[in-house]
Amino acid sequence: MTAAIGSMLTAERAQAMRAAGLWHDRTVLDDLDRWAAETPDRLAIVDHNSSTGIASRLTYGELAARVDRIAAALAGLGVGRGDVVSWQLPNWWQFTALHLAAMRIGAISNPLMPIFRERELRFMLGLAEAKVLVMPGTFRGFDHAAMARGLRADLPSLQHLLVVGGEGGEAFEALHDPARPFAAAAARTLFAERRPGPDDVIEILYTSGTTGEPKGVMHSSNTLVSNLVPYVRRLGLRSGDVVLMASPLAHQTGFMYGVMMPILLGCPVILQDIWNGGRAADNVKAEGVTFTMASTPFLADLTAVAEERKPDLASLRIFLSAGAPIPSAVARRATENLGATIVSAWGMTENGAATTTLLDDPPERACETDGCALEGIELRIVDEAGTDLPPGTEGRLLLRGCSNFLGYLKRPELYGVDAEGWFDTGDLARMDEAGYIRITGRTKDVIIRGGENVPVVEVEGLLYQHPAVAEVAVVGMPDPRLGERACAFVVPRPGASLTLAELTGFLAEHKLTRNYWPERLEVVDALPRTPSGKIQKFRLRETAKELAAG
């Protein structure tokens, strides 16, 4: 299976990781089976479906039973070992169950962010050659099922569309209907035959790149679990913890630390499908939440709620914030009002969390650094020639480690790992003498809005198609809550005019997800360029910074 989709894993790397004790040859199915057998009545998942108003509470025994039925039903639909099962679901229990069910039959999970629309999905599903797609009927007022039906004609590999809350042949619920005949013995035999190995690709997760096309990051159980084990150890997490996950499960943060980690620990996860600080506080109070991980805007919002409802958040022990630096004012307010330890972290879809601050670090570490490397991760700061730089010097951030991914789906030429295993992260950083890093910029032309990457090249490529646009450059504009928003600098065609509403309307017509739209338009006579003609985006970023400050 792994070879068929182009995994870049080498025998040398696998041998080195096992020899170092970093790969454990363990899969999340091992943990699910353990808890279902030993503690079937232990709470596994709580979710609140905002579309239906229905709350679900599943024990490990109940979750395993549903997983088995869904897995057998997927196999009955013709899903084979190495086939891709895609889904675009919010933070509902079905998300976790689908991943586990896909693994049961040796299929590959391909979660898709709920914000994606036709343009992104057509490319992603086509590249993955997804055989099954699972969608919500509606979510946040949008008809996902109708969108998916409209895509099927362009996706010859897509054989089945299933809808959570659907009807007839589309009904996802039929897969786990307890009234449906289920041959348990035959299913167990099938699952044993199909059980994936620890080096098989089990996840394809798309990340926005700079080439104008998303890249499908491939991971195995070994690459993912080798991150979770030291992460849990560093943060002192255990089976008695209760995890709140409000970050999308289709983001690597949600997938690794909201789907996989709770099962590894055997603890409950509380899923929240739409972010709201007050609702998060309700969950913390009602369920005794002790740990959560989210981007900086979530921390700021929850802190604002805590200033009025501090006793409701008394159980929260750790808030790990990643995706953007934590402003010192937010960190200070959070420490005072949440009462939790604030941990900052840095990571990528390609690696999971690679650095975190330590629980006993001084509080200022969380807003001054992005932490130090987890066990199994090595970091270097180098210049353009690849020479290591002294502490405190900004340079390119390279990473080598156990959780490094297994390549980009059908894009082996983009696998930026050298012969010694060093991966060019595309970020600029500096490292102090104690090994703590600070991300200072990006060599990749990507805007990070609320912890989510905006693919600038793709957005610019669409804007160049607008009849009023002669030239365009999109850069990040600082924002106190989201970190950055997109600002478009446009040189109009002679005699043409353009408003922000016209520009975003054009992007809407081309089905680009709203989160990628520029939120400010600056019409200019010319773009700053180098003598060779390259646009000087650093000057545009300086201008955008001044505009944001003004």
Question: What's the layout of helices and strands?
Answer:
Blueprint: H1 11-19, H2 28-38, E1 43-48, E2 55-59, H3 60-76, E3 84-87, H4 93-104, E4 108-111, H5 118-128, E5 132-136, E6 138-139, E7 142-143, H6 144-151, E8 160-164, H7 184-194, E9 201-207, E10 215-220, H8 221-235, E11 243-245, H9 252-265, E12 269-272, H10 277-287, E13 291-294, H11 296-309, E14 318-322, H12 328-338, E15 341-348, E16 352-356, H13 365-368, E17 372-373, E18 377-382, E19 395-401, E20 423-431, E21 437-442, E22 446-449, E23 452-455, H14 456-463, E24 469-479, E25 483-492, H15 500-509, E26 520-523, H16 537-549
Parallel strand pairs: 1-12, 3-4, 3-5, 5-8, 11-12, 11-13, 13-14, 14-15, 25-26
Antiparallel strand pairs: 1-2, 6-7, 9-10, 15-16, 16-17, 18-19, 19-20, 20-21, 22-23, 24-25
Helix pairs in contact: 2-3, 2-9, 3-4, 8-9, 10-11, 11-12
Structural class of the secondary elements?
Answer: alpha/beta
**Stretches where pLDDT falls below 50 for ≥5 residues?**
none
Classify the beta-strand content into a percent band.
25-35%
Radius of gyration: 23 Å
Shape estimate: globular
Please explain how this structure is put together.
The chain has 550 residues and is α/β, with parallel strands linked by helices. It folds into three domains: 8-27 and 222-444, ANL, N-terminal domain (Rossmann fold), CATH 3.40.50.12780; 56-196, Rossmann fold, CATH 3.40.50.980; 454-549, ANL, C-terminal domain (GMP Synthetase, Chain A, domain 3). The protein is 33% helix and 25% strand. Helix 2 (28-38) crosses helix 9 (252-265).
